[in-house]
């Protein structure tokens, strides 16, 4: 199968060749012909499978066939959940449309809107946007969606996770009822199927990989380690392995900042990327990471989708995510487009339940490993030896801090808990 056999025009084939691609991926083979036919498509594709080209190439061909040089309303709208993904998709639109007379732009928050508005007013065929900034500009009467012919919802499941459902419904109301709709999602959850029923008309269902699977060429390892030893272990892994490009995920923004500071103190160049960082800081950190000026990028789940880092060799889960599906998205940053990758997870006693949830999702059992010098001293509560009645336990693994009253520690709601209990994050 070749790109030419999919029915793409010479200008697009030339652009694809320039990008170095010779054969279409499974999602492209399955989706492109249906999109060119004008059908609505609901596609499930694991990240890194080439899904962006899967909708961008046929979209550009359809628009080019009915293009007007004099009047350029927004004819195609691509919605993405994050700024990083929006920027990545926009780059793809530019690259694949290099030999077409097509204008495009991207709008997202975190930067001033004036230049975005000026570009839109000059006329664009394709607009890539995040929901919030798009609605802001529409409220300012800076753009109109009344001539949209093609709508693409990229990472639709992530948009639902981030609470964009109301925004999506508002955006739907601003567009013509008659249009082509393309929805791409990593999973086919009940919520996604329900959203699709309200947007798509007689859609073609396309699945490139089984639901919630991880890239075949990603080596997954889990290391048991005490919580307070994680930073030292990360430094050892990076230094001993002489790793040059590592993406590390933390659960919180504060945790990302804290880990970044400790890595820098250990003479390992690092930068953090999360929601509290300005768009300029996020762009600078990502650029530094891509060109190898920054060795480690520490990120929250805002970066789990949409970061396109070619041949990224290592991903580390410094903390496992609360939602098991996010584990799939995180490690999907490596092993992209058939390349090999390694995903490591550092797991303390409090996170063992997360491991079981991920195993259940993926239908596989992980082997727990340890690294010499970092063996965990805190075991699962069920594995800790029971304290003999009336005697002081000499085999306790960690001394519990005493408070002034000697009473058991209480949480903010007044309920009792022990030091290894799982907290809601």
Q: How does this structure look, described?
A:
The longest helix has 15 residues, at 51-65. Helix 13 (324-331) links the parallel strand 12 and strand 13 (341-347). This protein is of the alpha/beta class and 425 residues long. Residues 381-425 have low confidence and may be disordered. It starts with 9 loop residues before the first helix and ends in a 56-residue tail after the last strand. The strands form two sheets. Strands 3-4-2-5-6-1-7 form a seven-stranded parallel beta sheet, sandwiched between helices. It folds into two domains: 4-207, 3-Layer(aba) Sandwich (Rossmann fold), CATH 3.40.50.300; 218-369, Rossmann fold, CATH 3.40.50.300. The chain contains 14 helices and 14 strands. Helices cover 34% and strands 15% of the residues.
What tags apply to this protein structure?
425 residues, alpha/beta, Rossmann fold, 2 domains, 14 helices, hydrolase activity
């Amino acid at each position: 199968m070749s790109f030419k056999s999919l029915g793409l025009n010479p200008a697009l084939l030339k652009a694809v060749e320039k990008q170095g691609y010779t054969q279409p991926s499974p999602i492209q083979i399955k989706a492109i012909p249906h999109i060119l036919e004008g059908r609505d498509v609901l596609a499930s594709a694991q990240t890194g499978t080439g899904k962006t080209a899967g909708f961008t190439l046929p979209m550009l061909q359809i628009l080019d066939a009915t293009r007007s040089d004099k009047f350029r309303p927004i004819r195609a709208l691509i919605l993405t959940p994050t700024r990083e993904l929006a920027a990545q998709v926009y780059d793809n639109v530019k690259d694949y449309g290099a030999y077409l007379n097509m204008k495009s732009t991207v709008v997202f928050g975190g930067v001033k809107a004036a230049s975005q508005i000026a570009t839109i007013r000059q006329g664009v065929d394709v607009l890539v946007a995040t929901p919030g900034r798009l609605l802001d500009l529409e409220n300012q009467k800076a753009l109109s969606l009344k001539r949209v012919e093609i709508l693409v919802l990229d990472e639709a499941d992530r948009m639902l996770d981030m609470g964009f459902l109301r925004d999506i419904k508002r955006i739907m109301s601003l567009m013509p009822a008659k249009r082509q709709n393309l929805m791409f999602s990593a999973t086919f959850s009940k919520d996604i199927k329900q959203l699709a029923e309200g947007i798509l008309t007689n859609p073609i269902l396309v699945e490139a990989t089984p639901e919630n699977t991880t890239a075949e060429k990603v080596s997954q390892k889990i290391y048991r380690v005490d919580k307070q030893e994680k930073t030292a272990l990360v430094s050892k892994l990076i230094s001993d392995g002489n790793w040059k490009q590592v993406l590390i995920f933390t659960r919180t923004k504060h945790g990302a900042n804290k880990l970044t500071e400790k890595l820098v103190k250990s003479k390992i160049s690092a930068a953090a990327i999360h929601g509290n960082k300005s768009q300029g800081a996020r762009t600078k950190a990502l650029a530094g990471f891509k060109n190898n000026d920054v060795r480690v990028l520490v990120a929250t789940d805002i970066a789990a989708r949409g970061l396109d880092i070619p041949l990224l060799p290592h991903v580390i889960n410094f903390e496992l995510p609360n939602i098991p599906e996010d584990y799939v998205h995180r490690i999907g940053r490596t092993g992209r487009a058939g390349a090999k990758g390694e995903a490591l997870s550092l797991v303390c006693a409090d996170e063992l339940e997360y491991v079981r949830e991920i195993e259940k999702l993926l239908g596989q059992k992980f082997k727990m490993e340890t690294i010499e010098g970092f063996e965990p001293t805190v075991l699962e509560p069920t594995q800790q030896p029971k304290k003999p009645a009336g005697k002081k336990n000499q085999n306790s693994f960690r001394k519990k801090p005493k408070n002034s009253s000697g009473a058991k520690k209480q949480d903010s709601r007044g309920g009792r808990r022990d030091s290894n209990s799982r907290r809601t994050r």
